[in-house]
Amino acid sequence: MNSSARSSAPMRGIDHLAFVTDDLPTTMDFYTRVLQMRLVHVRRVPFEQDRGQPPYDNLRHYFFDMGHDQLLAFFEYPTGLARQNRDLPGGMQHVAFHVEPERFDALLAHVRGAGVDVIGPVALGGRFWSAYFYDPNGIRLEFATSRGPRQDGVVDSVLQSEDEARAELGTLFADPARVEFWLGQMPLREHADAS
């Protein structure tokens, strides 16, 4: 059974991710020229109190097509604000874009050819191969792909055997009942991967 048939999540996926920039022209150039996303929507957003929106009025809010009917968006904040720390709780550590294996090497070559420093690709175990770099705003980005013998979907590719999941959950919970509870929530592979 594939992961979409097993999924009980009421969401289909990402509608949009919204980040902050203080240099929208440079951000537009990077995401369209380097990452080859299309700019698809430009607008201004009025300030609305008590809605969790940015604390500025009439902000630019621009959207890029990340593929598969999902958007990446940026708000343009005033210059001179402090930068966030991606390595503190509540921060976003990085964004990983899935790249089909047959397009991975060419896309890395394109990004490097645009003058971007890329770390990797590195093997992360199992099917995971990743390469890391930063956008002009300091947002850490990742290209993730599979170099394993199985070409599952993204969700199916991370499924584990019960033994693998039990071992890891046991490092988080001392109570076996809590481990069993969480194992009961997870779709599992019948056997550990040989890869």
Automatic annotation (TrEMBL):
Q: Where is the VOC domain?
A: 13-146
Under InterPro entries, the record lists: Glyas_Bleomycin-R_OHBP_Dase (IPR029068), Glyas_Fos-R_dOase_dom (IPR004360), GlyoxalaseI/FosfomycinResist (IPR050383), VOC_core (IPR037523)
Matching CDD domains: VOC
User: One matching Pfam family, short form?
Assistant: Glyoxalase
Query: What's the superkingdom here?
Result: Bacteria
Q: Which PROSITE patterns match?
A: VOC
According to UniProt, the name of this protein is VOC domain-containing protein
Species of the source: Pigmentiphaga daeguensis
